[in-house]
Protein: Deoxyribose-phosphate aldolase
Organism: Hoeflea prorocentri
Amino acid sequence: MGKTGTQAPGLHDNALARNKGSALELDWINDIQVNRSAVERRCSTLGGRRSVKKDAQAGWLLKAITCIDLTTLNGDDTAARVRRLCAKARQPVRPDLLEALGVADRQITTGAVCVYHRFVREAVEALDGTFIPVAAVSTGFPAGLSPHDTKLREIEASVADGAREIDIVVTREHVLTGNWQALYDEMSDFREACGDAHVKAILATGDLRTLRNVARASMVCMMAGADFVKTSTGKEAANATLPVSLVMLRMIRQFHERTGNIVGFKPAGGISTAKDVLAYQILMKEELGRRWLEPDLLRFGASSLLADIERQLEHHVTGRYSANNRHPMA
């Protein structure tokens, strides 16, 4: 794929080393504990004690756009819808707003476009000449209950069609039964099948029942080489939440401190407003630091979020809220 212009680095346009993983340490996994009340207390006070306004808020929201995996994962997806999505990924904010904000020369794009395997090649062609990678959901998304060999072939097919990121779904049963060796082996196989493509491990946290399970599953997937841990498919009854995210961020920090490996984070599902995304960015900065606000370490899985961010940016420029139809996504 050709590359033109300059922009914030994406997952593949930086010098960040991939997660090499580590041996499965069951003693470490079994020792993991989570204080649910402390987690909930920390998250409940986040919005009230943190405020980002005016120019600073606009800057944070522009950064958030570069971290969005602009997504369509619907049963009625078509090639035309995917091409429109890719056009929006190329130009996520109206040029007049970028000019008014003084960033018209930044060539701001979304972090990636995320689609089913069926549309990977279509998206790759639509994004030719950009830095924007295509991410494919895989391994029997969203349930993750396809035969293991079928999952591996699906990954390999998406990589062959040009996907540079693969969002895999773990087998929830391994987590719910505490079969950490099976989860580690599965994730290791997925990592190998991805080759040079980065792999995001979707935990489907809404199905895992406890925060301790979320923490342990996060750690096992990172040990097995996941480049990102991701909250949800967006199809569960409960998707990304701040408490779940805090637990996962603490595991990323612990894994980094113990192994030196850096892993990214992707909250997905239910993040639909600018206010939502600011809370996640603040949590990310406070728990992991400024480095984790870049698109190679932070992604938001979202379909409607971009429209609200663009609407908030227009309010910042004009002082008025506009109708959503002024900010079409696809």
Summary: Residues 242-259 form the longest helix (18 residues).
